[in-house]
Amino acid sequence: MVDDLQINEEYKRIPQDIAYWNIKLSKALRAKLRADFEKDQMESKLRIQHRARLEIDNAKVTIDMVTSAIDQDDEMKEAKLNGIDAEAEYQKIRGIAAAVSAKKDVLQSLGANIRAELEGSPTLREQALYRRRAVED
């Protein structure tokens, strides 16, 4: 049998865990959005720079030429990699936050099942009462 006191302790800790992981999720989302913003800013800056450079070298500059130059630029590659890292971290923390939330639901269900068992069995009820008193003393 699962110890109902352990479930109670876990259940008491869940709000703290949820708050902790929600804060981490918020920070990861902020980092992801910042990385996306910085990538967009970098692309705008590089578009102007590469268009100007290509206009000096070529009579006719196409959108594909500018896009290709931007994609090959080391600063743009770095901005894209930062975005990938931020997205991966966000998704990881999002998964952990979802797991903690699911744990809360499981604990609630398990607690309800234990209460139902205790109500139906005088022996189990006495054992649970004894364990609670031992912890209190």
Write the layout of secondary structure elements.
Elements lengths: L3 H54 L5 H10 L1 H47 L1 H15 L1
**What order do the helices and strands follow?**
HHHH
Which overall shape is indicated by the principal axes computed on the Cα atoms? Answer: rod-shaped
Whole-number average pLDDT? 88
Segments where pLDDT lies below 50 for 5+ residues? none
Terminus-to-terminus distance: 23 Å
Helix content: over 70%
Care to count the β-strands?
0
Structural class: mainly alpha
Largest sheet features: none
Proportion of residues in β-strands: under 5%
In DSSP terms (H or I, runs of 4 or more residues), the helix count works out at 4
Could you explain the architecture of this structure?
The chain is an all-alpha fold and 137 residues long. The chain is 92% helix and 0% strand. The chain has four helices and no strands. The longest helix is centred in the first third of the chain and has 54 residues, at 4-57. The protein is rod-shaped and about 90 Å long. The mean pLDDT is 88.
